[in-house]
């Protein structure tokens, strides 16, 4: 069956971009630059714990709870260092502000193999393209710094939308921005529930980026699975 697609929406983290190194390592490197010795592994564990707790307490960067995403992140960074034994408040503030800025840049992010080529090809084929990402307002800058921003008509973050995937309302906003009905749109992402299942629940087509050898997830029809981004073109060629 030919898919009559007009709009492609894209997840970003671990679909188009990935972190160059684990969070604990970049946090520890920044601490070292400021004369503090903190173990990367300990920082990584602390970060996962703090990030999880902050996300439960203030979902979607504290949207609607009076927090800015910047403050949300500064708190996460400081708390991660505190849990790892850093108590100096002046140092914590400096670290948090530096790291908040650093994660805006291609210094910490790299483009996944095949992403730029696949996006270029999709644009050449005439698809309208947008980003739908559980991310804060820094995403525009990050995509620009990584030379991907020009591929997209719009970048919709959960912070701007006020809803985070898997909430269907973020996909409804994306469909409005892309001027497409759900059946004319497909979403591409790496997370089964937030990307694949959520887009389908919104009436869209969806493809799950699941690198070969990464089994162990829920069953997905093989024609909906992308072992690499390069596999997308065969699935959607007009």
From TrEMBL:
GO terms for cellular component: nucleus. InterPro entries: HAD-like_hydrolase_domain, HAD-like_sf, HAD-SF_hydro_IA, HAD-SF_hydro_IA_REG-2-like, HAD-SF_hydro_IA_REG-2-like_cap, HAD_sf. NCBIfam families: DREG-2, HAD-SF-IA-v1, HAD-SF-IA-v3. Belongs to the HAD-like hydrolase superfamily. This is Haloacid dehalogenase-like hydrolase domain-containing protein 3. The gene is Hdhd3.
